[in-house]
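Suppose a colleague, Dr. K., hands you the sequence of a protein chain of 304 amino acids and asks what its three-dimensional shape might be. Before reaching for any lab equipment, you can write down a predicted structure in token form. Begin with the sequence itself:
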Amino acid sequence: MELIIETEALTKRYGKKTVVNELDMKVPQGSVYGFLGPNGAGKSTTLKMLLGLIHPAQGRIRIFKQTLNPKNRLEILKNAGSLIESPSYYGHLTGRENLEIVCTLKGAPKEEIDQALALVRMENQQHKKAGHYSLGMKQRLGLAAALLGRPRLLLLDEPTNGLDPAGIQEIRDLIVSLPKKTGITVLISSHLLSEIDQMATHVGIIDQGQLIFQDSLRALHAHSRCRLHIRTTDNAAARTCLAQKGIAAAEKNGQIILEDASDSSVTRAIRLLVYAGVGILRAEAPQVSLEDIFLRLTGKKVSL
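The predicted structure, expressed as tokens, is then:
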């Protein structure tokens, strides 16, 4: 698996406060990497270090297999697009005119503008002054600007902040489509768990500057053990039957809860209850939400 971004012991301090603490990030090529954590966890600081906007106290950053330093920063990052905090634009110019300026700054051919506008679905608004755009349209303009120059990597810091539900869905659909349409690798930071759950293929969870989880989204959901909920005609008899066979079971909200919901354990528990004459009304393994997993990892809730 080729890595587009790799950091080793990346650390940033402001005075005596450590904002990012020995971060080992690995972003696979072609992925949508969700960088997840509460506000103030160190997400924006990490992205700024990746872009060379601030210097780390220690550690190493490798992008496109090259170690980032002040001398080669511009050469490496010419293949990266970014949208950090609020998008920059000239309000008195149209969307297209803004993108023409970006093309000039990046040295990109202006023929790319039409493709970028199509990707962010702004063809019909390109001749409208940017100052009259809605917040969602300004975000899309910022994304279009980031896509100019055909970058291999896109870094987005909370791109749906302040958007209404329709705007969030539009940006989400766009981000998900980018690796498939263009091969771009996307690193997106967010404190919205449900948002990352619907976009990302890989996840890194940061809390108080430390990376506490990093793997595929599928692995994150598998990280939490699945429980089996059984509703029976006699819960007391069910627990006694299971306990006699060494199967630990709790009772909550009128249901028997089994911590181990592997296929073999479920088969054994159901067979024991049936042989004991306990009626089984329902058996289900509710999907554990990303919010629940995050709470177990960090011991705290975050904004949804």
